[in-house]
User: Fold this.
Amino acid sequence: MTVESAGTAATAPTAQAESELVQLLTPEGERVPSPDYDRLIDDVTDDDIRGFYRDLVLARRVDTEAVALQRHGELGLWASLLGQEAAQVGSGRALRPQDHVFPTYREHGVAWCRGIDPGLLLGLFRGVDQGGWDPRENNFHLYTIVVGAQTLHAAGYAMGVQRDGAVGTGDAERDTAVVAYFGDGASSQGDVNEAFIWASVFNAPVVFFCQNNQWAISEPFERQTRIPLYRRAAGFGFPGVRVDGNDVLACLAVTRAALQRARDGEGPTMIEAFTYRMGAHTTTDDPTRYRLAADLEHWKLKDPIERVKAYLTRSGGASHEFFESVDVEAETMAEHLREYCRSLPDPSATSIFDHVYVEPTPALVAQRDELGAYLDSFEGADR
Amino acid sequence: MTTMALGKAINAGLRKAMEGDPKVLVMGEDVGKLGGVFRVTDGLQKDFGEDRVIDTPLAESGIIGTAIGLALRGYRPVCEIQFDGFVFPGYDQIVSQVAKMHFRSGGRLRVPMVIRIPFGGGIGAVEHHSESPEAYFAHTPGLKVVAVSSPADAYWMIQQAIALDDPVVFFEPKRRYWEKAEVAEDGSPDLPLEAARVVLPGTDATVLAYGPMVKTCLDAASAAAEEGRSLEVIDLRSLSPLDLPVVYESVRRTGRCVVVHEAQRTLGIGAEVAARVTEECFYSLEAPVLRVTGFDTPYPPARVEEEYLPDLDRVLDGVDRTMAY
Assistant:
């Protein structure tokens, strides 16, 4: 390969993103007909779309509130989903109750769709727990911080689903798919590539949902790949598709198709939701050091919420009062979230020994007693 | 009673666990038709099928990571890591995910899985095939770590490990796979998984070992007996948690303690045992706790492993040193 052609290849992913993207709703809110995907959302009514709009707005409001709580010192850290709402709500609303989700640490919008109380997301970031919800109740696993590790858990879980006979029975309430969320940065991890291999050779019912938000902290996704990410799937032996990650309808349609394929026993699919991280990687990050303000402005024009609002306005599917009522609901929710966060108690020091093992070992009991006695030795001790 | 080699005893234990619980799976590289490179899973795929005895792709992180998913779905996977030195690609999944899942979920999630690792040297193997990485795992809260030394323990402890709801790293002394002894297949185990065993009572010094070194220490005790010296040999069996009350009781009687392992010395199991025996038995000790171990080098080429590994004479040398105080 010559130096020139290497340079061309390095710039290829962005160029190809435009031409190969599944898009059903333009940034201006115009519905784009699609012979392949229209049938997958032909049951979606204006009422549903109003519901998606509400999901998008509330997910964003959870996010902006959490960023504010971090700024006020109530959270130690927050990983913002700003800009990725449509990818998360579209895919999240494609799920059935029995489907199981393995998220990263940024899937607040998916958590919302799974019915996780947003307050429960805060504990990890406040430092009072490491995952405040029961993953079995909503089929939504705990956030995973080590990037890509959860994709293997998803592949293994899907192998369990196969062994339970919950694939390809034709029973819509039984057949189960598993979704592994990850990002463009994680796509370089060995675990993600191993998960692809496992899912492929065992034909496991997994959907690999990659939100390519184009940035792994400061590294552009060209540092992770020389080809569009969805094309990697072909090398592993399963289909890959690239979807406009800021288009909630396209994300819904594409994910529905992939989930059904998995539930039917036809194996894994990789979805690359092409989107943009509008905010910082986390609240400790400063994107002005590594990317251009113009890029941000460009992507603001592709905002995932504005296009749904434009669509509903144009089609007469929603009134001014509707949009206003969603805003009011968002403000009320944010207020509750704020109060809930501030009310979260610190765990007791000796509680750290509680769940190291299913039954505490004698040595841990001794250490717990040692810490307890030490803390009690201070005057006016209150633990 | 059946006479059984240690490797066969693990096979029989796996078989019994699989018969008793349809959720028990075996997974790893070459565990199916081949029966594992040491034949520990021989015949299991034939009898339990490919869905329960899974030949995996060749990637240890994948083996451990997918086993986590299977465990979260309600299965009880038993993963085989082919050789000790090959566990490290799976180390992140073991340390960051397996070990912490129960803790970070506030006790809501359990990952009942067993990670079997043939370990130790003495078989003339090439590099990465003779290591003793147990301290890495014993240093990790959330994991239970055991090492078996006899066919009877192998048979029962693999079943106990599978039945446990905590994840267990299960070390098998590969150079002892073919050594035979009596195993009572009926009935129940005589000790809990996490208990140490006094394998030879004695009065002059306490010798602690686990895995392949138990036999070495028993041989050393026989040789010492010929010289009129009575060694008490304790098989630690569980490396995390350590069953130290058994050790304390012994050391308070003998006043002397020697810890023996193949693994390198610094920050090994012996270091932890020495610290805690010193804390608990300080006024009973006639001599410092001594260690007879591998050296702080990478595992050496096979033609010099005999000098690296503790053997009967080095154990006796350690005993001589503690008796000299």
